[in-house]
Amino acid sequence: MSLPQSLLLTSPKVEESVKRRGTRTAHPAYGALGISLLLLLILLAACSGLRPSTVEEEDPLAALGTMPHYEIEFSLSDDLIFLQGSARVRVPNTSADPWTHLVFRLYPALPHYNGEFSIQNVTVEGSTAPFTYLEQNSAIRVELPRALLRGQTTNVYLSWQLRIPHWGADTTGAYRLFGLSQEFLSLPLFYPSLAVYMPGPTAASGRWWLERGTSRGDAAFNYISSFVVTGTLPIDQIPVASGQLITSTVIDDQHIQHRWETELSREFFVHMSNRFQSDSLDAYGTRVTSYWLPGHEEAGRAVLQHTAAALRVYSDWFGPYPYPELRVASAPISFRGMEYPQVFLLGVQLYDRYRDQLEIRAVHEVAHQWWYQLVHNDPVNQPWVDEGLAEYSSRIYYEAVHGQDAADILEYRRWQVVVDALISREEDAALAQPVTAFANGSIYEGIVYGKGALFFSAIRRTLGERAFKQFLQNYLTDYQYKIVTPEDMLAALRGVDPEFADMLFTEWIGPLASRPPQDTARQTE
């Protein structure tokens, strides 16, 4: 998720400075004439002693074991008001505790999503299972016929109907994450999603994650899973979805059925419009596709280039993007952005009114494909973990594409000025807080994004370029496809420089032990 308009580079003088100075010092490896220089850089990196950023040394999947697997079927009504769905979910117990029940999240029922989620039937291993709604109908508890022990799996079948909100006469300034608005239909987590189980301090004292979040930040917290999804849609709808499209079959003159598959994903997401236009290009073997509405072709093609460039920069810095496709689409989310697995959305206003902010929004969201999708964290209680790093990653992109001067201006105007203003108003706050602890949205965004990015800037200045890059690569390699806590990030930093790791965390984050335990379950535990 990206920063509000108030925290962006908006000064014409600064913009002109970026254009005048930054573009002349762009990294040659990302231009048409930079192939030989790029190869030279790769060879130099190989000789530098850095641990490679690829995952060839260790297979991160080997440590994951069995993961949840979803087989989902859904159909949309012709008026796009109702979604009828069913899912078969293979659920492994990856915790040390026995599970006497399961919890599935019904994210569309959150107040800021405004959907109506009705579970019709639940079975476990073929037998009807009792269930109850929890947390204002944003979850269900499913009773198991017998305890599910560590390492065991069970099969759950669920069917449901979802009433999709239609937001009426929205203007382009509206922010709608779920439902029909402005010719777009957005359907994040339209299915029951297995909740994350969080172990407690003693045996059998764990709990299921039931946070409801707010409209300020991200709401979804998920295990890495595999998906096979079959969706029947009105034939005029053009879907943008997670995973690879395997087949598309015309059912009749009004309906089409699509089938998608993805092996390693935090969720399955689908977004659509009957007016999308698109174009694609290749970036390091990944097919990058941009979708836009008529009249926005110039911006739609520009964001395609920005996305491809960011994928290349981040792959070089952090480690390879592991999926065959990455998609970006316009959406009814004003001038903001929102990340999903293998997809991100950009507010429709970025394609015209705020066109000058399109690039910075896009590259922040691309970074989330590493920091939130691959390396995952609790977005409600620990939002700075992914948002701060995704935000700082945009500086890395600016250095590579626009040059050092542009990156320096970005850091100063986008983060330092904002944090200084909070300090001057005595509104500074600790980074390590849940979303709900911040007094208002402005403070939340200034601290989590601005101060969070400056924390990583401080790490880089303290460690130096080589060690900082090593830290990011190790962090990805060690925690790819897992769920992390701030303690894990501290451990990764200690692995590079134990002397300064605790000093930096104490100064910027605060003593981790002073906060309530946030010992999030990992799939390897």
UniProtKB/TrEMBL annotation:
Q: Which InterPro entries match?
A: M1_LTA4H, Peptidase_M1_dom, Peptidase_M4/M1_CTD_sf
Q: Per the database record, which ranges form the Peptidase M1 membrane alanine aminopeptidase domain?
A: 304-496
Q: Which UniProt keywords apply?
A: Metal-binding, Zinc
Per UniProt, what is one GO molecular function of this protein?
metallopeptidase activity
Required cofactor names: Zn(2+)
Is Zinc included in the keywords of this UniProt record? yes
Q: Where does Zn(2+) bind?
A: 364, 368, 387
What the record notes about the co-factor is: Binds 1 zinc ion per subunit.
Where are the catalytic residues? 365, 449
Q: What is the name listed in the Swiss-Prot or TrEMBL entry for this protein? A: M1 family metallopeptidase
Q: Which organism is it from?
A: Caldilineaceae bacterium SB0664_bin_27
